[in-house]
Structure formats: structure tokens, C-alpha cells
UniProtKB/TrEMBL annotation:
Protein known as: AAA+ ATPase domain-containing protein
Example of a GO MF term: ATP binding
Domain AAA+ ATPase: 353-623
Organism, scientific name: Ulvibacterium marinum
Highest taxon, organism lineage: Bacteria
Pfam families cross-referenced by the UniProt entry: AAA_15 (PF13175), AAA_21 (PF13304)
InterPro entries: AAA+_ATPase, AAA_GajA/Old/RecF-like, ATPase_AAA_core, Bact_Antivir_Def_Nuclease, P-loop_NTPase
SUPFAM superfamilies tied to this protein: P-loop containing nucleoside triphosphate hydrolases
Family matches, as Gene3D superfamilies: 1.10.30.50, P-loop containing nucleotide triphosphate hydrolases
């Protein structure tokens, strides 16, 4: 990470005061803050697209954080998150919504740094409150106000952060911290992820060879020009380049000046700006050539005044950011009905939300089994031993040669995968503690009935419902309505989850139309008076019930479910839902839990409407060996439900009613016969025509089927008599094949 001077590029016209997107809405929000305690600000980066060219110019098409090339379209990062923020212990605050469309808060970032940075933004001392409207409308005044806040994450565009060297490098390409802030920045952004380390290793080797090759024994002016080239602002990993070249220059300045005085002036004009800055490293023992990785940690004792100790991980509970892991692939061997299947998890997130996997397939093919296996892999040994999974032999594929099941999960940028093994005598993992907070929702969603009490701690694993249908989800309402257990701030965060799930428009959220709590009940008012969650219809109760259960489970680590980075697994997600909700439920979950990985199974094509590239996987049985096959098959945008059902996702022949479908099937079969019954064919065609005539709205496939029959007959039979058709089996097959092909196209 290097310092970038923001004043090098003027504020884009679209972000000037009076021109900003949503400026009136933000001003109103600043003036009426109490109204929006339960309304989350929704950042719309679409309106920031015109600033991308300016950001690429400012940051030289490099990530502001890791200095790698930025190639993604979605590359705008809000240094201070606009929708919600989380500190190091998962405590939530309202986002810096008032900076959502402000130039000095926009950074160019690679997709991976954005994912790791997420909404984590701890500060040293108090967090800034929203400014008054006068400050908001004055760019310089607003910038000064924001600069009064001290952040734990190093700001690439704050010159004060770079007055002292924050980072060093070792020979292996690792970036090393020289301060508490640098350590947190490296840890949060994963600046030593394998790809970056490899790129730096290559750069170190290249620069070492280039600098060593300068011997000052002949005309090597072109080599000095090469040195200048690698100090240009558009070079990737420029911080590393400066580090190595500054060290080399300080050791050879006199030789350069003696041999190439003219070039040395050019070199000095560039390097004089960075030598004083890098002198702190180059004149110490911490250089590429001499220091070891542990040297920096040994010589620094980091302390930062004003940081809440709870922010610095003093609890035995894992810090939330330790769960910032992204699934790369899952491999399952000999678990229950599965012989060997592998699932590659999509990494590029198109639009809102993290990774998702949508499994489809017939009953009994193993969808629920895949969900169970992934859930087990997220548990550490401690949690696995607490699960009562019955006879372990039942968890191993019956005809497996080796009486052992294995579940392997690989996380992105982690070298050692998680391995769970099951033998007839037990289950074990190569991880002792919880890998990633996981919530499992089974296909049967039982909520407590009147008088039934279910404790939240009855299932500490949060995944038991994936294995047993008798699991009753605890009623979260009493906890949520408890003034002592849940603060007003925490309740408002939960209210945002409820409001998002119920799709309540923001303009309906007023002082008297909010989520409220009283006497153990939580009520929602959407304009018709307060209604308790308990009195809602079963469909609403089911969705809100398990959404609140997910939220409550994630609240163990994050105050706001919106900031949580867990794994949500739901079997048969469409159960109990109206078609309108089925279409929206996946998008809603992404909106409410945008940083969670969501893995679901479904039989319902409506639930696949929100699928994105790489997310839909079809499970089916191989007819030759009866093994389970798992194939990734994207769903084209705009495809009709009918084509989705008869396509390669559900393999239905027709989508008409059962009687009409049978009539179509019988007609096709009759055409295939060696001696077709001509009268029967004529009778069935007449019946099909009557069905089309009687259908006022039209049944597309039936209509198409009948039209194809007439079209094919007119083309193939205009010179062939009916007698010829009866005697020509090949022509009949050709006719039937053409009909079927066109019906399925």
C-alpha cells in the first residue's frame, strides 16, 4: 500500500455539491435522523459508474490497498462503508451513508480486497456522528470533519498515515507490519494471500537481477532508464519497487552520479521524493537483503491510545473477522448415498450478496445429503462430538469399498483444506474449533405451538434441523422483546432485518409504523395497525421465524446480521411459500444477509429466478451405474418457466395438465409404431384441436405441439398419401422426431 494524493484528480462533476445522486434524500435523512433508526440506507453504486474513469486515473488502474491491477467492472470501494459498519468484535453502527456519494470516500479496489474488507471499520476513539447539513454541503468542511476521526485501517489517501513507513517486505514476498495499524490492515485485507505473495516474489527476483546487473563498468544508461521505468506510478506493487530501488540507490548514489550525471538528475527528481520516506527502512536492519520476517514483530511493541480494549480481541471468543473465509470447493466421498461428488463454488459475485449455491434434482438423489455434508465440515471437533448422529455406519455409503466417508472443504487463499472423516466408530475433523458460523434450516420448519417451550441452546450446533425432522425452532420473539437482553440499538438492527424480509417500502417507515416490542411480543405496523409476528399467516411466520433464528444465531458473533459472515444452509427453500415469495426469497436472503454464503436445495423453478452465473447445480442419477452426478448448469436470463421445466434442469416432457400431457405422449408414441392406427391418430388430433379451442388463454406447449404437427405434415407429406405414411416407418419416425425436437426447443 502506498500514499495516493487525491488532489491529483478533481472532483467529478456528478459528485459536485448540488449534483450528487440522492443528495436531497441524504439531506432529509440528516435532518430527520430519528425516523430512520429502523431504515437501512441502500447504496446504489449504479450512479457512481461515471466516476470509474476518474478513479482509474487517480489510482493508475491499481487496487488502492494491494496495488494489483484492477480488472473487475465492480471496482468501487467505499473506504468508510455507507450501509453499515462493524468493529473488531462485531458491534454494529450505522454506516457512513452521508459519504456514499462523496468523492474523497471512493477508492478503486480489486474484488478480493473488497470482500475481505467488507463492512469492518474499527476506529480509535469515538466514531463520527452524521454531520449537520451545512457541513455535509461544504466539501472541504466535510473532508476536515471526516479527517478528525482516527481509523485502525490505514487510509491510502491520508498523508498523515504515511509520514512514517508502515510496511516492510521479506525475501519471500510477504508484506510485514511496522505498526498496529499496519498489522490490522494486512490481516483484514489478507495482503499476504498466495496470489499477491507470488506476484511479489516474481517482482523481487526480477528487480534483484536487474539491479545486480548494473556494474558501472560500461555504458549502462539504458539500465538506469529501466530503473526509472519501475518507479513510475502505474507500476503494480510500486511500494515494493520503491523499497528495493531506494535501498540500491542509497548504496550506489555516488557511482550513479559519477557515471551518468545527466540521468542521475532525472533519477534524483523521482527518487528524492521517496528516499527520505524509505530511509527509515533502508538504513535499518529491515531490508530485503538482511531482515527475517520475525525481526519486525520482535522489534515493535504496538500500542494505540484510545482504542477500546474490547476492540482488540481480548475475549476468548473468536474475532468475527477470523470467519472471513470464502468457500472454493467441496468434495464428498462415500457419505450416505454419495459416491464421489465435487462442487466448485463461484467466486465472482455479480451484484448484491456473497456466494450462493442452488441445488436441484429429483427426490432421493442426495440434495439434502450434500447440505448435511457441508454443514458437518463447518463444525470443529468440539461441535461434532456434541451432535447425536446415531449409528455412524449409516453415514457411510453401503457398497463403498472403504468403510470410511470423507468430506473435504477448501477455502480460498488457504493452503490446508478442512477434512472430516467418518468411520463406523466415530467422526472427526482436522479442526478443533468452529470453522465458520453455520445455520441449517431443514425441509420441515416446525415452530413452537402454544405452551411449547424450546430453548435457543437446545441445539448449540445450529444445524440439527438438517438431520432430523422433529427439531422445533425456538421462538426468538421473547428474546427480541426482552429489554435487558437486547438493547434498543440491537433491536433496531433486528428490526431492519424484519423490514427487509417483509419488503416494507422505506416511505412507510415512520415513527408510528415501525417494528415495536411490548410485553413479550414483537409487532409490525405496515399501515393497518400493529400486528404481532405470532398472528401472521403460516407462510409469513415460517419465513420470518427462520430469518430471526438465523439472525439470532449470527448475533453470537455480530451485532448486526447485515455484517455477519456465516454460512446459511436451507433445505427445500420454497416450502410454505406463496409463488410471489418463492421468486423473491433468494434475493431477500441475499439482501438481509449479504455477507453470508447461502446454500439451498429446491424443487421449485420459481426459487431459481434469482440465480446467477455458476450457482445452479443439477443432481441426477447416472442410468448406467446408478451413481449420483453433479453438474453446473446456468439458467439463461429471461427463460420462461415452461422452458425451464422441460429443459435440462427439470427434464419434464410437458407442462400441460396430466390428461393432455398423456394425450400428447400417446399421439407421439402412435406415430412411432410399425403399424400405426390411423383412425386413432386422427381421433387424437381432433381431441387435441378441441382442447386448444377450449383454452381461452392458450396453452403454449399444447398449441405449439398441434401447430408443429400441421406444419410438419404440410412440409413432409404434401406429396405423400396417407397410405404412404402408414407404410413408411422411417418417415413416421422422422415426423415424430421433428415434432419432439421442436416442442423441446
Amino acid at each position: 500500500m502506498i500514499y495516493i494524493d487525491r488532489d491529483g484528480v478533481p472532483v467529478p462533476k456528478i459528485l459536485l455539491d448540488g449534483e450528487k445522486p440522492y443528495e436531497e434524500e441524504i439531506l432529509f435523512r440528516l435532518e430527520q435522523q430519528t425516523k430512520f433508526k429502523q431504515a437501512r440506507f441502500k447504496q446504489d453504486d449504479y450512479y457512481l459508474d461515471p466516476t470509474l474513469d476518474d478513479l482509474h486515473t487517480l489510482f493508475h488502474s491499481k487496487c488502492a490497498y494491494c496495488e494489483s491491477n484492477v480488472v473487475e467492472n465492480d471496482s468501487i470501494d467505499h473506504f468508510r462503508p455507507s450501509e453499515s459498519v462493524s468493529d473488531r468484535k462485531g458491534r454494529a453502527d450505522e454506516g457512513y451513508y452521508w459519504l456514499g456519494y462523496t468523492w474523497f470516500n471512493l477508492y478503486l479496489s480489486c474484488h478480493e480486497c473488497q470482500r475481505y474488507k467488507s463492512n469492518y471499520f474499527p476506529v480509535i476513539g469515538p466514531r463520527l456522528s452524521p454531520p449537520d447539513t451545512e457541513t455535509y454541503l461544504d466539501y472541504d468542511q466535510l473532508r476536515n470533519y471526516v479527517n478528525s476521526e482516527d481509523t485502525l485501517l490505514i487510509d491510502p489517501c491520508d498523508v498523515r498515515e504515511h509520514e512514517e513507513v508502515q510496511f516492510g517486505y521479506d525475501r519471500e514476498g510477504h508484506i510485514l507490519p511496522r505498526s498496529e495499524k499496519a498489522e490490522y490492515t494486512i490481516e483484514l485485507l489478507q495482503l499476504n494471500r498466495p496470489q499477491l505473495v507470488e506476484e511479489r516474489q516474481e517482482r523481487i527476483q526480477f528487480l534483484s537481477e536487474m539491479l545486480t546487473d548494473i556494474t558501472f563498468s560500461s555504458d549502462e544508461s539504458h539500465k538506469i532508464k529501466d530503473v526509472l521505468f519501475h518507479l513510475q506510478d502505474d507500476q503494480t506493487h510500486l511500494g515494493l519497487n520503491r523499497h528495493m530501488i531506494a535501498e540500491w540507490y542509497l548504496a550506489n548514489e555516488k557511482l550513479v552520479d559519477n557515471e551518468y550525471p545527466d540521468l542521475n538528475e532525472d533519477l534524483k527528481s523521482v527518487i528524492s521524493k521517496i528516499v527520505p520516506y524509505w530511509l527509515q527502512i533502508a538504513q535499518s536492519s529491515n531490508t530485503i537483503s538482511s531482515f527475517e520476517p520475525e525481526d519486525i514483530k520482535a522489534e515493535n511493541n504496538y500500542t494505540i491510545k484510545g482504542v477500546d480494549s474490547a476492540n482488540l480481541g481480548d475475549s476468548q471468543q473468536p474475532a468475527p473477522q477470523e470467519f472471513s473465509k470464502f468457500l472454493e470447493w467441496v468434495e464428498i466421498i462415500n457419505y450416505k448415498c454419495l459416491g464421489h461428488v465435487k462442487l466448485d463454488i463461484p467466486q465472482s459475485s455479480e451484484g448484491r450478496g456473497e456466494q450462493s449455491i442452488l441445488l436441484i434434482g429429483e427426490n432421493g438423489v442426495g440434495k439434502s445429503t450434500v447440505l448435511q455434508a457441508i454443514a458437518l465440515a463447518m463444525m470443529g471437533n468440539e461441535q461434532l462430538q456434541e451432535l447425536n448422529l446415531g449409528d455412524y455406519t449409516d453415514l457411510i455409503k453401503r457398497n463403498a469399498k472403504e468403510k470410511r466417508a470423507r468430506i473435504t472443504v477448501k477455502f480460498l487463499n488457504e493452503s490446508d483444506p478442512i477434512v472430516v472423516e467418518i468411520t463406523p466408530t466415530g467422526i472427526s475433523s482436522n479442526r478443533e474449533q468452529l470453522v465458520k458460523p453455520t445455520v441449517g434450516i431443514g425441509s420441515v420448519r416446525r415452530l413452537p405451538e402454544d405452551g411449547e417451550t424450546v430453548g435457543f441452546e437446545d441445539d448449540p450446533s445450529r444445524i440439527l434441523a438438517l438431520f432430523r425432522h422433529d427439531v422445533v425452532f425456538p421462538d426468538v420473539e421473547p428474546w427480541l422483546s426482552n429489554l435487558k437482553a437486547v438493547t434498543a440499538h440491537q433491536f433496531n438492527e433486528a428490526a431492519k432485518t424484519i423490514i427487509d424480509m417483509l419488503m416494507i417500502p422505506e416511505d412507510l417507515i415512520t415513527e408510528d409504523r415501525m417494528v415495536n416490542r411490548k410485553s413479550g411480543n414483537v409487532t409490525v405496523n405496515v399501515g393497518n395497525g400493529p400486528e404481532s409476528i405470532k398472528s401472521m399467516c403460516d407462510g409469513y411466520r415460517s419465513v420470518i421465524g427462520y430469518a430471526l433464528y438465523i439472525m439470532r444465531s449470527l448475533n453470537l458473533y455480530w451485532e448486526s446480521a447485515y455484517n455477519a459472515e456465516g454460512l446459511i444452509i436451507i433445505d427445500e427453500i420454497g416450502n410454505h411459500l406463496h409463488p410471489t415469495w418463492k421468486i423473491k426469497v433468494v434475493s431477500l436472503l441475499r439482501q438481509v444477509f449479504p455477507r453470508c454464503t447461502i446454500i439451498i436445495s429446491t424443487h421449485d423453478p420459481l426459487c431459481l429466478r434469482a440465480s446467477r452465473k455458476g450457482e445452479v447445480w443439477v443432481m441426477n442419477l447416472d442410468e448406467t451405474d446408478r451413481s449420483v452426478k453433479l453438474q453446473q448448469k446456468d439458467i439463461p436470463m429471461g427463460i420462461s418457466l415452461e422452458n425451464l421445466l422441460i429443459g435440462e434442469w427439470f427434464y419434464m416432457n410437458y407442462t400441460t395438465d396430466e390428461q393432455t400431457s398423456k394425450l400428447i405422449e400417446d399421439h407421439s408414441n402412435e406415430l412411432f409404431k410399425e403399424n400405426p392406427n390411423k383412425e386413432r391418430i386422427k381421433e387424437m388430433e381432433a381431441q387435441l384441436e378441441r382442447t386448444v379451442m377450449q383454452t381461452s388463454s392458450g396453452i403454449s406447449k399444447l398449441d405449439t405441439y398441434f401447430e408443429v404437427i400441421r406444419e410438419v405434415k404440410s412440409e413432409e407429406m404434401k406429396e405423400i398419401s396417407k397410405t404412404d405414411l402408414a407404410n413408411d416407418a422411417e418417415l413416421r419416425k422422422k415426423l415424430a422426431a421433428r415434432i419432439r425436437d421442436q416442442i423441446k426447443s
